[in-house]
Amino acid sequence: MGSTIGVPGLILLVILALLLFGPNKLPELGRAVGRTFREFKNGAREIIEDEPAPKKEDQARQTAAVEETKADSKRLPE
User: Fold this and answer.
1) Is 46 helix (H, G, I), strand (E, B) or coil?
2) What DSSP character marks residue 51?
3) Is the pTM of this model over 0.90?
């Protein structure tokens, strides 16, 4: 009931791939799969890095607002 392939399953897949594609096409197929994974990985990394970083001005405003709130909380009620 496990979803693992195991060693016999892998051997069967390799033999099947050899029969379908032949020994000359397998290296080309492996390179193509490797390039595809590399492109996907680079694309995902670019999407993650494209998130806009907060600008220094925005950070300065947020810091000033927090400091102002702290200063207001220290004042005595009137």
Assistant:
1) helix
2) S
3) no
